[in-house]
Amino acid sequence: MKNRENVTIDTFSTLANLGWALTFLRAAGVISTDWNAITNYWLALLGISVVLGILTALIGMWAKGGDK
Asked: Angle CA(50)–CA(41)–CA(13) in degrees, nearest 5?
């Protein structure tokens, strides 16, 4: 088959989009989720991204991937 493209789902982008949807729906008054729960959701995403960034940097320093 020609013109075959791979479709991938970026998990972190999906979770961030869900966070934005929660924030906008709460601001519009459509949902009654507590603001603290939405803030904790964003803080959890921030924590995950920081941990993954640190792990990526450590693995990059250990593997010396592009420094040949």
From this structure: 65
DSSP string, 17-49: HHHHHHHHHHHHTS----HHHHHHHHHHHHHHH
pTM: 0.73
- Do residues 38 and 19 lie in contact, with contact meaning Cβ atoms separated by under 8 Å? yes
Q: List all residues 6 or more positions away from 41 whose beta carbon is below 8 Å from its beta carbon.
A: 19, 22
Which residue is it, tokens 């979770």?
15
Q: Which of 12, 15, 38 is nearest to 25 (CA)?
A: 38
Residues of the chain with pLDDT under 70: 1-4, 7, 65-68
The residue behind tokens 């920081």 is 50
